[in-house]
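SEQUENCE-TO-STRUCTURE ENTRY
===========================
Question of interest: how does this chain fold, as expressed in backbone structure tokens?
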Amino acid sequence: MAKEIFYVYKQMLLSHIILRNFRNYIDCEVNFPKPVNLIIGGNAQGKTSLLEAIYFLCTAESHRATRDGELIRHNEAGFYLKGTLENSNDDVMSLEATKRARGEFKLKKNGVLQTKRSEWIGQFNAVLFSPESLILVKGGPSERRRFLDLLISQIDNNYLKNLQEYRLVLKQRNELLKQIRMALANTVQLDVWDKLLIAHGTAIIVKRSEIFHQLKTYATLNHQRLTEGQENLALTYRSALLRSDMSISSIANEHSAEDENLGNSVGEEGGQLRIESIESANESKIAKHFDEALSASRSADLQRGTTLVGPHRDDFLIELENTSEIHDPNSQSESCYEVRDTEEGDVVHEPSLPTPTPEENGTFREGARAYGSQGQQRTIALALKLAELELIRAVTGRDPIVLLDDVTSELDYKRTESLLNVLQNLSAQTFITATHAEPLVHHLNQPNVLTVENARVSRTPQESKNHVEGVED
């Protein structure tokens, strides 16, 4: 019922926020009278923490803290955040977040306590781009899974439930594998957990493939805009569930068992599935392959004491297409190295792909992680974030809050100009941080310009002299 009531509110904007003992803020209240907000300040003054507070109110998590306790101001008992959202119909909503240093975390919507974080996610969406977003390109598989999981969880509560259940089952199965390895349990007990893992895992795979298909379309178009058509982005979903020569569409079109195709390599490190389309995806056939993959991988799972196949091992490949004239034939794919999958806590051996060969249009694909410049990687991460925004808007009918932290610091002039043109066309409420107002202030539509210094926020002289409560003008 709470979810249904929420959808009555359309295009709500954050009009006011309170930060108490959050990061370096002591007691600060800020009004946001306009949709576009430009926040100016030097390094370590509190710009990012202000965006982090907004993001936390929307998603119940931080983009840079590993524990909620890190968000509490040093030597204080806890932090408190409150955001007020309003729309043109004078509907008002309040969001509150409280964390005591030695107490539980609490979330309230309109004064009503929310018992689970899962109840919070998706009620008010946000898209954040920050320097940490580069980890989407430069980081390991767990970072890209986290990106997809949070995106889908914001627009599909059933996905979030399946994801939570899958993680619980996976944890229990891994514990059982360790017990069996120590002769403290019987392998027959795995059957129960395998059935649950397949049920929830299949739902995750199907939904991820559907959303990834849409995300890829938005991301490639945004990347074209940001690079003025000078570069082409290629995204490919890969799963450890099946072999590299299989896809969701091929699975769905099969009419008999695939024992020959699966072979003995299913479950080995590096087994990959490239998901190209979800149009003909068949959940029961994916479940069948998942079942076969788990069976084939059981001995390896027992030896390692962990589950080696399933959506918790998936990733998506990020590549840039180059013309044959500039391709280095001696280069190798980015996949020929080891990366640490932080979610699993062990090293993942990325599959060694063949030496790149020309596509039908005479281009070569090279991994952005290994071969992209810092500016190219940043542009790709930004294209993915803009795609996230557009996808949320398409599914929910509402624009998420857009948070852009230090977004222009490592983009060249042309990419910055292209980004600013994209920002001009956004209808979402936007918060942008920068060390200087130029050139952003001239490209934004009547922005509300704020200055942050030592965790105190003030309006710039050209703005109205309305007092920003809790701080000096």
